[in-house]
Design goal:
There is one protein chain. With 323 residues, the chain is mainly alpha-helical. The protein contains twelve helices and four strands. A two-stranded antiparallel ribbon has the order 1-2. α2 packs antiparallel against α3, α2 packs parallel to α8 and α5 crosses α8. The model has no long low-confidence stretch (mean pLDDT 90).
Length: 323
């Protein structure tokens, strides 16, 4: 698996400039506008490169591993769901699709994963007094959770290096935790995502990005984040945190609230603000928290992303020490 990670890194690193140059030649660039913070037309092809490379590596590992071969439904169902969002994201990156078109496909992709990964019923560990979600209500809650998370992570992709760096930190932690929990289908995928994202960030986490991630990458990261959250809670409904001599036993749900604090906080404030002003919650604007931080840092992408990623890294460090 380590070798596949290195190959994934090298492929993303080598193919990104090739695809970038092709996009520039064809004029497929993300042009600056009133609701965007970049000032130079830039290709949105980062996700177009790293998503198929990462998922291909994971599929090769999963379908050839003696441990994973007996449950191919997990691999195949996720590949189908990712393909749906990936193709939809590529089209959206070039044509700006309406949410009325995107939402049904996002629900379809989510439903496939929920069904084949057996995410309902689920033990919620007593969070907010909820012990188990099941039946049609459980399905409805799970679909809404996937939908919210996919779009919350997508909204985070607004500043150079932000979503890629954020996902690298969170997925790295979840890979370590998943390995400890023997989540054999999860930690290899998370590890490969970290390898691919690291290569992508070499082109994106800079003052003037060579490429953006695009919806072809951000919505897939949202789907993977939804799956990992639901599956890890299912495998381990409760966690024990040790803060010095004090130990806390609490629902694992709250660990993921900490991990995904930024997309959760940012999406909730965006939805509340838009709805309170009588606007559609799905119409893009420049009211995200990272836009406000950009204004305070004199439009410094690296400082803005570094602040949010740094807070996340501190939370992850605290979890690593206390879990």
């Amino acid at each position: 698996m380590i070798t596949l990670g290195i190959v994934t890194f090298i492929l993303v690193l080598g193919l990104t400039p090739v695809v970038r140059n092709y996009a520039i030649k064809k004029g497929r660039l993300d042009a600056p506008s009133a609701r965007k913070v970049h000032t130079v037309p830039t290709p949105r092809i980062g996700g177009h490169v790293f998503v198929p490379i990462i998922l291909s590596s994971w599929a090769i590992y999963g379908l050839t591993s003696p441990i994973l071969q007996h449950q191919p439904k997990y691999i195949l169902s996720l590949l189908v769901s990712v393909t749906i969002l990936f193709v939809l994201g590529i089209v959206d990156d070039f044509q700006d699709l309406s949410h009325r078109i995107k939402l049904p496909f996002q629900f379809l992709a989510s439903g496939i994963v929920i069904y084949y990964w057996d995410l309902v019923p689920m033990d919620m560990g007593g969070v907010f007094g909820i012990q188990t979600i099941s039946g049609w209500s459980g399905w409805l809650l799970m679909l809404c959770f996937f939908q919210f998370t996919i779009n919350a992570l997508n909204y985070t992709d607004g500043v150079n290096g932000l979503l890629g760096g954020y996902a690298l930190i969170v997925f790295g932690f979840l890979a370590i935790w998943g390995y400890a929990l023997k989540a054999i289908y999860l930690y290899p995928l998370l590890y490969l995502f970290c390898c691919g994202l690291l290569a992508f960030l070499l082109f994106n986490f800079r003052k003037s990005a060579k490429t953006f991630m695009g919806d072809g990458g951000s919505t897939v990261i949202g789907l993977i984040s939804s799956l990992m959250t639901a599956r890890m809670i299912q495998l381990n409904p409760h966690v024990e945190l040790s803060l010095g001599p004090i130990e806390y036993n609490l629902p694992a749900f709250f660990v993921f609230v900490l991990l995904f604090w930024y997309p959760l906080f940012d999406s909730l404030q965006v939805y509340f603000r838009r709805i309170s002003r009588g606007k559609s919650p799905f119409v893009a604007d420049r009211g995200h928290f990272h836009h406000y931080v950009m204004a305070l840092t004199n439009k410094n992408h690296l400082a803005t992303s570094g602040l949010i990623i740094g807070i996340t890294a501190l939370l992850v460090a605290g979890l690593l020490v206390s879990l």
